[in-house]
Design brief:
single chain, 187 residues, alpha+beta, 3-stranded antiparallel β-sheet, two-stranded antiparallel ribbon, 30% helix, elongated
Length: 187
């Protein structure tokens, strides 16, 4: 491996002057306090990951300390996003750490004005019963021949769900006979 000449190291230490200094480059761009503070991600475990949103597959670097999520940034080595993230990807840490995140099932009955908390099992049973009823009511026949599809319900999804959830929704709604399935995320 070729060694750099000593003169190269000295050139790098010289302060930038003129237009380069005006651009905020070189040692003038940071204060002594900033250099002493170090990087906010120093000492954290970095794990490469994929953004959970829209199925584009942008790369993320997830930083943790003792198993606790500390930060998420764009992965500069990703051939797809090259270190950039959309607003949703940039805020994906809030998926698990948002203090205002709703963690209970809330239900508002038809024509009711107040929300009530339900047990998860009760809510899931209500959803299943209503889906089956809508499916049966909207089942289609064509000239007396059953065509195995329903227009009784549809699904309109978005990129706020992750890739796996969108994939499962598409597969399960298709298996139930739905034909009206649209999603912002391309699956």
């Amino acid at each position: 491996m070729a060694r750099r000449p000593k003169s190269f190291a000295r050139v790098r230490e010289l302060p930038l002057v003129g237009r380069a200094a005006d651009w905020g480059m070189g040692s003038i761009a940071t204060s002594k306090q900033t250099r002493a503070a170090g990087a906010r991600i120093a000492g954290l475990k970095a794990t490469q990951s994929i953004c959970p949103y829209c199925a584009v597959g942008c790369g993320q670097v997830v930083y943790t300390r003792d198993g606790e999520l500390v930060d998420i940034e764009g992965d500069p080595t990703s051939p797809i996003s090259q270190g950039t993230l959309c607003p949703k990807g940039s805020a994906s840490r809030q998926l698990v750490q948002q203090p205002g995140r709703i963690t209970k099932v809330l239900y508002r009955a038809p024509r009711a004005t107040e929300w009530e908390e339900l047990e998860l099992e009760t809510a899931m049973d209500m959803i299943a019963e209503r889906t089956i009823a809508a499916r049966e009511k909207g089942w289609q026949d064509h000239d007396g021949v059953r065509v195995d599809r329903t227009l009784g319900f549809a699904h309109l999804g978005g990129a706020t769900l992750d890739n796996e959830e969108n994939y499962l929704i598409k597969k399960s709604f298709t298996a139930m006979g739905a034909v009206q399935i649209e999603n912002q995320a391309r699956i």
